[in-house]
Design a protein that fits this description.
4-stranded antiparallel beta sheet, 8 helices, 251 residues, alpha+beta, YacF-like, globular
């Protein structure tokens, strides 16, 4: 099944983008070639660009505190395991403490590294990191795998509190939804959203064998899905067939 996710607000959109970048970074850092480590560095720069949004750190801290308060309100409920509750609350508190302990915006300490910033300034230029532009960077790429790994781990460690916070917040959001099987009649699906409840994320799973691509739109009143198919002319065309998929609304 292919999973598509659609955020209903800018905050969740930012969280999903950061999660995407952190997953890519984790994959690239563990590899060994200079080329992989070059793209690990450019991914760090992308994370820094997203993380410098003025209110991002504040939003994450507020969400961590909100989730902790919600979970603590379940204490004394016989249907809730106190041990599991303590574990999740402890993780939220750890993330809150680690993130709030970082000075300034997430990744700000990396901006004080002149060598990194010189690479960052050239990385946005097509071909700007050639050896004649950045000989010091070219020399770093020829260092041992162990040296490059150590440097990358040192740089990514400053971003780890943000990564862990985003991870737990998105997991709790995704776990809040209940999957339902639905059918798009003639390739179209619409569902009114219940009043008085605010949804933040839509998750859609569809069988890849159907060869269909969902175009999702939504607001606080309505969710709409239009199923498309990539044709031989390399353009997307609306599908007119009935098709089933799984839909999850998360609040």
């Amino acid at each position: 099944m292919i999973l598509y996710e659609y955020p209903f607000n800018e905050r969740i959109r930012t969280y999903l983008r950061l999660e995407h970048l952190f997953l890519r970074l984790d994959e690239l850092v563990t590899r060994e070639t200079p080329l992989d480590h070059h793209y690990a560095l450019t991914t760090i720069f992308e994370i820094m660009d997203v993380a410098t949004r003025a209110d991002l750190k504040s939003d994450v801290l507020k969400d961590l505190e909100k989730q902790k308060q919600i979970l603590n309100s379940y204490r004394g409920n016989p249907a809730i395991s106190e041990a599991v509750l303590d574990d999740v609350v402890g993780r939220l508190e750890h993330c809150f403490s680690a993130l709030s302990g970082l000075p300034g915006k997430a990744g700000q300490s990396l901006t004080e590294n002149d060598w990194l910033m010189s690479v960052r300034s050239r990385a946005v230029i097509p071909g700007g990191t050639c050896e004649f532009d950045l000989p010091a960077y070219f020399a770093w790429q020829h260092k041992s795998v162990g040296t490059r790994h150590a440097d990358l781990h040192a740089w990514t460690s400053t971003l780890q509190p943000l990564a862990e916070s985003i991870q737990i917040l998105l997991k709790m959001l995704r776990d809040s939804g209940t999957p339902q099987k639905v059918v798009a009649s003639g390739g179209q699906f619409q569902q009114p959203l219940p009043q008085g409840r605010t949804f933040q994320l839509l998750r859609l799973r569809i069988d890849p064998d159907l060869d269909l691509i969902p175009e999702i739109s939504g607001n606080r009143l309505l969710v709409s899905v239009r199923l498309m198919r990539l044709a031989a002319d390399t353009r997307l065309h609306a599908c007119s067939d009935d098709a089933a998929f799984e839909l999850t609304l998360c609040s």
